[in-house]
Amino acid sequence: MCAASIDDRIYSGFGGQEHFIRGGGLVEGRKPVIALPATTLGGKASRTVTRLREGAMVALTQAHMHYVVTEYGDAELYGKNLRQRAEALISIAHSGFREELYAFAGEHRRV
To answer: Is 51 or 76 the better-scoring residue by pLDDT?
Structure first.
């Protein structure tokens, strides 16, 4: 999850999002969830991307991500390998971007 920077500029520091996700995973019977729209820029760009831009700052590790939800469904990520995680995230991306995401993942042996 890249939420701490916009391109190579730091937008926010570590803290809120990381604490929210880690805390959710530590509470008995609770699971952390990230909910977000599948697209940005008025539907012109997917929030599920093949790579982060150079200089992007990642705030959450894959070990802390349990669920990601968009208007297209939910992806359970916890405990899955990279191929399974890629498939799950692509399945909740906007349908207009899935073909491109699957193609990239296939080329890089993620699906």
So the answer is: 76
Pairing of strands 33-35, 67-70: parallel
What confidence score (pLDDT) does residue 3 get?
Answer: 61
Which pair of tokens denotes residue 50?
């093949």
In 3D space, the residue among 61, 49, 48, 56 whose CA is nearest the CA of residue 17 turns out to be: 61
Predicted TM-score of the model (pTM)? 0.81
Architecture of domain 5-107: 3-Layer(aba) Sandwich (3.40)
- How far is the first Cα of the chain from the last one, in angstroms, to the nearest whole number? 20
- Give 102-105's long-range contacts (Cβ < 8 A, gap of 24+): 104/50, 105/50
Residue ranges of the domains in the chain? 5-107
CA separation, residue 45 to residues 16, 39, 40, 42, 95 (Å): 26, 6, 5, 8, 12
Residues 6+ apart with CB under 8 A from 25: 31, 32, 64, 66
Lowest average pLDDT, out of 1-5, 64-68, 92-96, goes to: 1-5
